[in-house]
């Protein structure tokens, strides 16, 4: 076969995007191919976030070029497709906003949210987290920044903004930085709305790949208002396997459907317990298979099952999400897989949202 630019485009065009199960050709992803006698230069654009598929796609291209152009120098550039940002004003620099929600408190919503934020940042993404729980803010504890307060600064355009607290490279804003628990206990109605608008309209996030939003537990008025006001990319629902929690998942899914927010999937937390001294035993303390049943019932993804784990609890209390620590590798793998599955869900949503039926650009 004679090597031509057209062959290169055809051959590379057959490579699949691992998340979307569509070829680079179908995704109109190959932006340019330059072929000289000695080199081939390829430029590809993928739907964001690309951090998790970058190396897979790059090596697939590399392998194909090794096959069809073994004697050429290969230069491969992979970039994000330009996708307009999520929101207006302070949220305008944020590419993806993920709500983490649960029907009731105590299921591990905040633990999953903190590990998700930390897991996303491990791949080099810029990440922020908002702790929207007024009555039980826990992100300050989970990131070891209790007692901090948001500092007000003046932006170049003259507006005043609050700077998020930074820990492990993650930007954090919490209701806990604005009001303390004792004050919060008596806050209602318009005052509450005021605090929320402070979190969403006055915190200066700059540019983020992801903002993880730890929603207050429940499916009441606060949650409805917040999910409507914030331009969410999608929602993750956290539950335990018990029937009593699953009833709340139904309510959560109904709420998100009502406000037209896509559900990325369900995380089942506290799924089982493996004793450290009996690693081949697995105890389903809160029952088995609840998350899977409810995911099937609603046709949504089961993103993963997180064991009950002492190191995870210690990380939460000790100010470092377990995913960042040296502790328990099985627990971390589970959480990393969940992060990856959530990213995959977001890429699918971004593809659906931004795909254009425009003709393939002549290159
Ligand atoms: N998988 C888990 N293993 C061990 N402890 C957990 C796990 N998930 C959550 N916890 C602990 O359970 C408690 C409640 O979790 P939290 O994330 O605060 O729940 P929520 O935000 O839903 O109220 C916390 O003490 C937390 O450290
Ligand atoms: Mg919480």
Summarize this structure as a short list of keywords or feature phrases.
binds adenosine-5'-diphosphate, 3-stranded mixed sheet, alpha/beta, GMP Synthetase, Chain A, domain 3, 15 strands, 363 residues, 2 domains, 8-stranded mixed sheet, Rossmann fold, binds magnesium ion
In short:
It is built from twelve helices and 15 strands. It is an alpha/beta fold and 363 residues long. It folds into two domains: 5-82, 2-Layer Sandwich (GMP Synthetase, Chain A, domain 3); 89-353, Rossmann fold, CATH 3.40.50.300.
Plain-language structure description:
This protein is an alpha/beta fold and 363 residues long. The chain has two domains: 5-82, GMP Synthetase, Chain A, domain 3 (2-Layer Sandwich), CATH 3.30.300.130; 89-353, Rossmann fold (3-Layer(aba) Sandwich), CATH 3.40.50.300. The protein has helices at residues 5-13, 54-68, 109-122, 139-142, 175-178, 181-184, 189-201, 221-229, 243-258, 290-298, 310-318, 329-354; strands at 16-17, 22-23, 30-35, 39-46, 73-80, 94-101, 127-131, 151-154, 160-163, 165-167, 170-174, 208-214, 234-239, 263-273, 302-308. The chain has an eight-stranded mixed β-sheet with strand order 10-11-7-12-6-13-14-15, sandwiched between helices. Helix 9 (243-258) runs parallel beside helix 10. The mean pLDDT is 92. Magnesium ion is lined by residues 109-110, 133, 136, 138.
């Amino acid at each position: 076969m004679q090597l031509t630019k057209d062959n290169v485009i055809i051959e590379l065009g057959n490579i699949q995007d691992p998340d979307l199960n569509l070829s680079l050709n179908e995704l109109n992803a190959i932006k340019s191919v330059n072929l000289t006698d000695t080199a081939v230069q390829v430029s590809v654009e993928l739907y964001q976030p690309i951090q998790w598929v970058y190396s897979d796609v790059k090596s697939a291209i590399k392998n194909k070029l090794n096959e069809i152009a073994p004697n050429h120098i290969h230069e491969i550039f992979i970039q994000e497709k330009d996708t307009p940002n999520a929101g207006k004003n302070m949220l305008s620099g944020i590419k993806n906003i993920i709500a983490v929600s649960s029907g009731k408190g105590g299921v591990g919503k905040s633990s999953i949210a903190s590990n998700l934020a930390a897991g996303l940042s491990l791949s080099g993404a810029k990440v922020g987290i908002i702790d929207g729980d007024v009555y039980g803010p826990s992100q300050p504890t989970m990131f070891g920044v209790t007692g901090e307060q948001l500092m007000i600064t003046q932006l170049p355009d003259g507006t005043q903004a609050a700077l998020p607290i930074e820990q492990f490279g993650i930007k954090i804003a919490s209701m806990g930085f604005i009001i303390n628990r004792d004050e919060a206990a008596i806050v209602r109605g318009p005052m509450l709305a005021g605090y929320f608008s402070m979190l969403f309209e006055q915190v200066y996030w700059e540019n983020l790949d992801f903002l993880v939003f730890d929603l207050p537990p429940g499916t009441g008025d606060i949650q409805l208002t917040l999910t409507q006001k914030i331009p969410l990319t999608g929602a993750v629902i956290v539950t335990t396997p018990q029937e009593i929690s699953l009833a709340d998942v139904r309510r959560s899914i109904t709420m998100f459907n009502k406000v037209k927010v896509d559900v990325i999937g369900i995380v089942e937390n506290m799924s089982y317990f493996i004793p450290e001294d009996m690693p081949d035993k697995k105890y389903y303390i809160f029952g088995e298979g609840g998350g899977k049943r409810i995911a099937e019932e609603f046709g949504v993804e089961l993103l993963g099952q997180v064991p009950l784990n002492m190191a995870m609890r210690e990380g939460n209390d000790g100010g470092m999400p377990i995913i960042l620590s040296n502790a328990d590798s099985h627990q971390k793998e589970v959480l990393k897989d969940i992060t990856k599955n959530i990213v995959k869900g977001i890429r699918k949503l971004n593809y659906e949202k931004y795909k254009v039926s425009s003709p393939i650009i002549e290159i």
